[in-house]
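Hello again, I could really use a second opinion on something today. For a while now I've been wondering how a particular protein folds. Please have a think about how the structure follows from the sequence. Here's the protein in full, and shout if anything looks odd to you:

***
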Amino acid sequence: METSTRTLLFAAELIEENGTHTLVVQDVRRDTVQTTTVPKAMVDKLPIFLSALVAKLHPVQPRRRW
């Protein structure tokens, strides 16, 4: 039986405080943290960016007709 091991590489949080959005990304392997402010317009588009990434990485295969 094959076993798999999951290893956390990065952890990310998007924090809103007083109308300011901050992206915090932790590189778990290197034990570093980077932060940057993110415009609200970009935060609002995040679901679209994620959907585009998923579509790019996992394109829908056309259905075969019988």
In short: The chain has a mean pLDDT of 93. Residues 40-57 form the longest helix (18 residues).
